[in-house]
Amino acid sequence: MKITVCGVDLAKEVFQFHGVNAAGKVEKRIQLRRGKVMEFFANMAPCLIGMEACGSAHYWARQLQSLGHTVKLIAPQFVKPYVKTNKHDAADAEAICEAVQRPSMRFVPIKNIEQQAILAVHTARAGFVKQRTAQANQIRGLLAEFGLIVPKGLALLKERVPTLLDEAKDELPGAFRQTILELLDHLNVLDKRVKQFELEIQNWHRSNSMSQRLEKIPGIGPITASALVAAIGNAKHFANGRQLAAWLGLVPKQHSTGGRTNLLGISKRGDTYLRTLLIHGARAVIRHAANKIKQDWLHSLLSRRHKNIAAVALANKNARTVWALLAHDREFRADYAAA
After folding, report:
1. pTM above 0.85?
2. What DSSP designation does 317 have?
3. What is the mean pLDDT of residues 149-173?
4. What GO molecular function annotation could you give as one example from this UniProt entry (predicted)?
5. Rounded to an integer, what distance in angstroms lies between the CA atom of residue 169 and that of residue 162?
6. Closest by alpha carbon to 11, among 40, 52, 64?
């Protein structure tokens, strides 16, 4: 009998293959070197291939789809319960093969090259933002050891540090002053890199109609909109907005038993980067909400709940709005009321 379903445990060099036939009997277990993967699957009849959603999964999914196979990606946490024995490559491949056949299994949408490219820009920008913050904190901490205090804020740091060094030049050793100036130059380089990546994101945003559509939602700017469009892809993979919000980890974590419902804080599952962007955008909306007429949903929520809870609630609402706009090809309307 021919192989109808197989699981592939991806790796850098050695891949593990586990294939079964229509009756569920094991037909082949084999290790594949990276250079032999395409040749091996090219000689196979089209079948269902399951893989864990890891770093190179989207690339291999596109490559195997080009050979006529059906590829489905599974989140690693959904594969783990099917590992029967100790963890090793063969057991993982068998677990993937078993999990991909489950009718209730949830799958990860396969990203195209354009989606991966803009997400790579977002990843690079986030890395430089983290380095910039660390560098600014290091400069602030070193100055504090000499009694020089700089207010919070990147702009104030760049503006005040040269002045502080000039005022205290008679009290500070030359080596220390030179070190701080070099660290400040490095901070400026990092800031320049961040702005360059933000410009690339802006250019991509202007060329994408869906990203421009999401930008109209209060609390969502070009960076958040472009990241959402690239990460979500086809919004119709989600049945409704609630599923998208749950995918982003913006819904309560549940620990219920015996018919008693117990809701905890947000689950924090899914993409941390997207969730952070949505919540920070919601905080910006709340910060400016005081200047508006206090009659809308947000002001009503702020009157009875803490602003952090309101920020997460608004982020959840924005996620559902994003799904509605993308799935139904609509434009954002601030005065829209559900039927």
Report:
1. yes
2. H
3. 87
4. transposase activity
5. 10
6. 52
Alpha carbon distance 65, 184 (integer Å): 49
The pLDDT, as a whole number, for residue 261 is 84
The domain ranges of the chain are: 5-99, 113-206, 215-328
CB 82, CB 93: distance < 8 Å? no
Nearest-angstrom CA–CA distance, 142 and 147? 9
Q: Do residues 83 and 36 lie in contact, with contact meaning Cβ atoms separated by under 8 Å?
A: no
* Cβ atoms < 10 Å from Cβ of 202: 14
Contacts by 157-166, CB closer than 8 A, 24 or more apart: 157/187, 158/184, 158/187, 158/188
**In which region does residue 90 sit, left (phi positive, over 0), alpha (psi from -120 to 50) or beta (all else)?**
alpha
User: The sheet that has 5-9: what strands, in order across it?
Assistant: 26-33, 14-20, 5-9, 48-52, 70-74
Task: Give pLDDT, residue 53.
Answer: 92
- Do the beta carbons of residue 233 and residue 290 sit within 8 Å? no
Statement: 5-99 belongs to CATH 3.30.420.40: yes
In degrees, rounded to 5, the angle at the alpha carbon of residue 329 between the alpha carbons of residues 325 and 333 is 50
- Using a pLDDT cut of 90, give the percent of the chain over it: 65
Whole-angstrom Cα distance, residue 174 to residue 170? 9
Strand residue runs (E) in the chain: 5-9, 14-20, 26-33, 48-52, 70-74, 252-254, 263-266
The conformation of residue 238, written as its DSSP 8-state character, comes to S
Which residue type, as a one-letter code, is found at position 80?
Answer: K
- Nearest residue to 161 via CA among 175, 182, 133: 182
